[in-house]
């Protein structure tokens, strides 16, 4: 039986989910929901309708899993608990500090309705969390490090765009190679923010803008840039379009730990991602989690889950038998 | 409540399990079982007894999980189904081709007894299998590659030791760096055995042995060496003791895959291990799986499982709440 999937919200992430569904023959897109005028939203899949978000629950019997593609700041804290009343849901809620609160709200709604919800699917939180978990479970005497990049941080890019005189901006987060190398060699240094990442900014200044003032405002911006070594490059709008259109990202989770009666042996576990498209990779993880949500619901495992709770085999389209034979 | 663990078989792996238990305060070693004379087996943990293997089932009420540390060739195919009748068990069965058969035998015994069994815990099968699974579930249009090394292959070392005139030998499996680099850059080449790994052998020849004949016998040995580029170094027994006593190992699982409506974006996921002690790392994975086996039994999830079936959170000593707060 094909798993019927709905998408709520059709931005970069919604489009990524649509593309990922095309790659998974055991799943199909059945509906897209939007808060915009449905007539104004052009999707890629032929024969699938776009509906107003407010009508979603009327289609509950046609959707096995609803994927929520809104933002973590204001959309998901409302949407996920609300739609968990009517659907099995998956979201990519990524405000780490607010996960416990979000989990509680979604868990309550999903349990009451007998639905399965998976929150915080993606790569961080998501695949990186899994690797932090496995690393610490296998090597309890150890330390883990997460590095992000090289990749575009949309929050930091937006922060630059809000500065007076800035027309456009793109910010790259870059891990410090020497820190990575030290950890790979088995060292377990305490690293400051500045020692882990640098930030590189590409900025299009408006006509007659004071570039020195813009640069100073960027590098001294609290929280976003002040604690980092930040470099600023002014470029033309043409260069921005030509060289900085895509949304690459990635990063590293490294666990270094010791074993042996006297902790005499060292081990390094490294997981890394090199992604051409951050939203499409995130969507691909979400879609695999939607498969797991569907299966858990079938087996009566309801309530809110995260990727840490999902039996790995449930993410795959293959049977347990195939997995044991082919890839165990 | 502390999880009470028994060890069946006290070689490199059994000793590794003993060391790993010391690192996990929620677990404790309660008994070691051996087929040797128990009086001849000295273990590291004070206050724990060594019993004859044949008496194990009499202690079933004192052991929550029995870890089977025998070999895959002849011990585990008999021991795991047998002891699954009396205990929750974990083994590290690693003959990939025979996993389906072993799974079926263990599943039958564990189900009938209402016990939980985890087979094939370790790193390959084990952590590498998990990464092959997650990689293929997230990037279905892709290809994965597993490389082993640099590390000691005990089977290959043994094969060399059986050659006439050889006193001692140690064989290292080494991944071909240029193949790794090509895959990391997003290529998905078809690689022959020879293009993936080389083999390096350190050999102590006996007094007056024909070194040229030994070298020829090694490099032309079918299955073990003939399909590889193999180098042979003759060294003294002193050099063997000094430079080749430890059992390092490791390797890489790399998934390269595409996303996007027209598969226009590429992604590379890489998981790697660099291990000072192969048996101790394997033991550390086994012990985390023993924790999961105990929990699954508590929840009535009985029968045979592999690491692909274990909810990741069950491997950790932390609660779901702590995991969501601290590392999700």
From TrEMBL, chains A, B:
Pathway: Amino-acid biosynthesis; L-lysine biosynthesis via DAP pathway; DL-2,6-diaminopimelate from (S)-tetrahydrodipicolinate: step 1/1
Enzyme's top EC category: oxidoreductase
Substrates-to-products reaction catalysed: meso-2,6-diaminopimelate + NADP(+) + H2O = (S)-2-amino-6-oxoheptanedioate + NH4(+) + NADPH + H(+)
Matching CDD domains: meso-DAPDH_N
Keyword Thylakoid applies: no
Alphabetized GO MF terms: diaminopimelate dehydrogenase activity
Enzyme nomenclature, EC number: 1.4.1.16
Subunit structure of this chain's protein: Homodimer.
Family: Belongs to the diaminopimelate dehydrogenase family.
The protein's name in its UniProt record: Meso-diaminopimelate D-dehydrogenase
Source organism: Alitiscatomonas aceti
């Amino acid at each position: 039986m094909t798993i019927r999937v709905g998408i709520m919200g059709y931005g970069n992430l919604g489009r990524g989910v649509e593309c990922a569904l095309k790659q998974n023959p055991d799943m199909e897109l059945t509906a897209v929901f939007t808060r915009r005028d449905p007539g104004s939203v052009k999707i890629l899949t032929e024969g699938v309708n776009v509906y107003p978000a407010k009508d979603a629950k009327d289609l509950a019997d046609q959707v096995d899993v609803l994927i929520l593609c809104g933002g973590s700041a204001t959309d998901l804290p409302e949407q996920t608990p609300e739609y968990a009343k009517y659907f099995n849901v998956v979201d990519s809620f990524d405000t780490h500090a607010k996960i416990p609160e979000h989990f509680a709200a979604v868990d309550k709604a999903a349990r009451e309705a007998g639905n399965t919800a998976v929150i915080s699917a993606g790569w961080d939180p998501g695949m990186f969390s899994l690797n932090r978990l496995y690393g610490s479970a296998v090597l309890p005497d150890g330390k883990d490090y997460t590095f992000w990049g090289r990749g575009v941080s949309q929050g930091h890019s937006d922060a630059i765009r809000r500065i007076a005189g800035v027309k456009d901006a793109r910010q790259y987060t870059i891990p410090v190679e020497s820190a990575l190398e030290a950890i790979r060699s088995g060292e377990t240094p305490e690293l400051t923010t500045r020692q882990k990442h640098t930030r590189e900014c590409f900025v299009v200044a408006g006509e007659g803008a004071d570039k020195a003032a813009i640069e100073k405002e960027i590098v001294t911006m609290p929280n976003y840039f002040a604690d980092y070594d930040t470099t600023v490059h002014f470029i033309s709008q043409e260069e921005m379009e030509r060289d900085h259109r895509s949304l690459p990202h990635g990063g590293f989770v490294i666990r270094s730990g010791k074993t042996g009666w006297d902790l005499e042996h060292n081990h390094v576990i490294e997981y890394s991602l090199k992604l051409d498209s951050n939203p499409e990779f995130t969507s691909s993880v979400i879609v695999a989690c939607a498969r797991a949500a569907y299966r858990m619901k079938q087996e009566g495992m309801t309530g809110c889950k995260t990727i840490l709770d999902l039996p790995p085999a449930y993410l795959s389209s293959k049977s347990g038998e195939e997995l044991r034979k082919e890839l165990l």
